[in-house]
């Protein structure tokens, strides 16, 4: 229970310091860069080289692909029923087909289940969510661009791919596999471990610092065609149906219960910030794409607590 108290405390602290103008405006960018370039790579290098791989890790890596695949089908059907245009369907699929399994998911699950869950979360995030965005996510986005924008956005697509495959945590993951062939000195391992421990408070604080609550402009956007239905259906799927689908599938397949817990909670994380940025950059309903991460994060706190409670009572 104390872990779920710490989550809103960190988020609120970041939000309060932003509104109080106590820290510089660019604090989120600075702290976020520290997490991406130092905390998360250090955490990976501290854990993956000594990781004992289990077959059920395959299910963890597969989880985001399943959630994304179901989202393509569901939002295609919902789009016809609610008469969404193409841009709306792609925006909802990109944003709500993928979850924030790293920046929010990793610190939250480490707080809930402790350090021992780190390896499982890293597999779900780096080999699951990251690659799902990089391959089917981008194929979906680029394949639905207007023909006269293909050349311009092809360059954008190539630029984003280059950035993704230069992503420090992913490079750290690749490098960590080679380190499995060697024995890492305890002094170096301790440095990685200490730096990795900074992830939880800094990441959650940074998310809170960037959190945008609904304002007058947001209420005006709600009057846009299909904005309300797309926002509601996207978040209902991401926060409720996606974790429920994973729970039913993985329980039926008799996956390791500890990995089921990780997979279900990661499936129920708020919409992925990076996917929202991609949708924004490619012009798919910018106001809707921008709304998903912040609004989703607010609603994800009670839904995650709900699924956590159900999982603890079930297993």
From TrEMBL:
The chain crosses the membrane at residues 30-48, 57-78, 90-109, 121-145, 194-211, 231-250, 262-284, 290-311. InterPro entries: Mem_transp_PIN-like (IPR004776). Keywords: Cell membrane, Membrane, Transmembrane, Transmembrane helix, Transport. It is found in: Membrane. It comes from the Bacteria. It holds the Pfam family Mem_trans. It is a multi-pass membrane protein. PANTHER family: AUXIN EFFLUX CARRIER FAMILY PROTEIN, SLR1864 PROTEIN. This is Malate permease.
């Amino acid at each position: 229970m104390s872990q779920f108290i710490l989550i809103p405390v960190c988020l609120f602290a970041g939000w309060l310091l932003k509104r109080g103008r106590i820290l510089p405006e660019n604090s989120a960018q600075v702290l976020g860069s520290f997490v991406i370039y130092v905390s998360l790579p250090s955490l990976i290098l501290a854990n993956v080289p000594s990781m004992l791989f289990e077959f059920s890790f395959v299910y963890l890596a597969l989880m985001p692909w399943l959630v994304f695949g179901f989202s393509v089908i569901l939002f295609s059907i919902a789009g016809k029923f609610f008469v969404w245009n193409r841009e709306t369907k792609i925006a909802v699929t990109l944003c709500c087909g993928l979850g924030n399994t790293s920046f929010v998911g990793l610190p939250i699950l480490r707080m809930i289940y402790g350090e021992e869950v780190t390896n499982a979360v890293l597999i779900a995030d780096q080999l699951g969510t990251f690659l799902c965005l990089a391959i089917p996510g981008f194929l979906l986005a680029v394949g639905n661009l207007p023909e006269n924008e293909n050349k311009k956005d092809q360059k954008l697509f190539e630029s984003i791919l280059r950035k993704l495959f230069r992503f420090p945590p992913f490079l750290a993951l690749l490098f960590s596999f080679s380190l499995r062939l060697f024995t890492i000195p305890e002094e170096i391992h301790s440095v990685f471990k200490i730096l990795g421990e900074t992830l939880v408070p800094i990441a959650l604080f940074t998310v809170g610092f960037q959190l945008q609550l609904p304002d007058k402009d947001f209420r005006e956007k709600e009057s846009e065609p299909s904005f309300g239905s797309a926002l509601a259906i996207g978040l209902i799927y991401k926060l409720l149906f996606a974790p429920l689908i994973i729970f039913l599938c993985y329980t039926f397949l008799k996956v390791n219960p500890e990995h089921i817990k990780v997979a279900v909670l990661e499936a129920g994380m708020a919409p992925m910030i990076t996917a929202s940025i991609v949708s924004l950059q490619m012009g798919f309903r910018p106001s809707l794409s921008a709304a998903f991460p912040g609004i989703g994060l607010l609603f994800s706190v009670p839904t995650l607590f709900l699924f956590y409670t159900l999982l603890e009572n079930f297993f």
